[in-house]
Specification:
By secondary structure, the protein is mostly helical. The protein has 2 domains: 301 residues, 2-Layer Sandwich (Beta Polymerase, domain 2); 82 residues, no CATH class. The protein is 57% helix and 7% strand. The strands form 3 sheets. The chain has a 3-stranded mixed β-sheet with strand order 1-2-5. Strands 3-4 form a two-stranded antiparallel ribbon. It has a two-stranded antiparallel sheet with strand order 6-7. β6 and β7 form a beta hairpin. The longest helix is centred in the first third of the chain and has 35 residues. The two termini are 15 Å apart. 41% of the residues are buried.
Amino acid sequence: MTVPFSPAQQIVIDAVNHALGREPFGASLAGDEPVDWDDVLAIALREGLAALVHAGMASCCASVPEVSRTRLKVGYLGAVTWFDACLEPSLQTVLRTLHSLGIEPIVLKGAALAYTVYPRPYLRTMGDVDLLLSEEEAVRAAEGLKGAGFFSVDNEAGVGHHLPPRRAARWRLRIELHHHLLPRRNPYAIDLHGFRRRSRADSVAGVETQVPAPVDALHLACLHLSYSHRYRWFLLRGLTDIVAITTRWASELDWDFFLALTRASRTHGAAYWPLWLCRDWMGAKVPEQVLSRLAPMAPIRRLISAAASPQYILGSRQSPETANDLVRDLLLDLSLHQGCSAIDQTKALVRGLFPPPEALGHLPAELSRSRLRYSAYLIRPDRMIRGAIALGRLLAKAA
């Protein structure tokens, strides 16, 4: 399909592909179409890709205005400085401290991917490091890290699947000690024992430790982007992780096992849409048979793909509750629960149509605190009419 990217969005995506050693998927970086370079910079910074975009542009013959190239280089140098002065020394200290306690964590997400699938680890920006341990190990690790100068962050509690974050006074990097991959109240059936068993040794920050197997790294990247972040934060960076995984480990990915894994864990929808976006937006080498086996029913697929436009997903929402937002969020909930039980899908549908008050943060307190008044607000005729119009427009676009 032809994705309607703006020139700035296309340049960011092409630069990312260049930096990963891939051919640009869309228009050339040296194209003649006018480019809003301020928008290029805004997207790169917002998505945590400034270092990668700068590296990608440096390896091609794009005609980039000097002021824009300089501003991207500042972002690149900032990422390198943060990596050298904070991230790597902090990560080395954490891993060596845990190893001295006889604890072998599995390094998750960005920290693991930075060292295993990216050309240079500093090209993968991050603000925290996630480590997977057993619950007993997590408690011991927290005590051990306290002795190494890492203390729990004030006013931050754990969220059910990890302890309160740790941070050292001299480093701003957050360390999260996970004992589960997702919050415990999730609709999936994640095989944590299998995930641990398949992990393998690799070098992270110069320390040999455990990282997820390629198929688990891909599965977790999809879940992190779709279920944990709900496509709202660092979308392009999340997609870039998937592109980097499918590029670096192209010969190691067992797609049949990946399909079996999504079936067993009921994560069809949480895996399908990130892979679909990576293939259609960034040209990732995702086999067609994998997408066809994961795909939802054609009507739902057309609706969600019509809603997944770059201008909406990569843009900033103008209102905390518009009819378009509500319809898209409803479709998002349905997509995440594809493969789950009918009960879970029905609950997701009800939550989408009648979201809890905290999901609509713009409401006045006197309205959100009263069940009666809030219920009356949800069933207002004008709200229903706006939603029906938005759905009608989306159906017309899908058709």
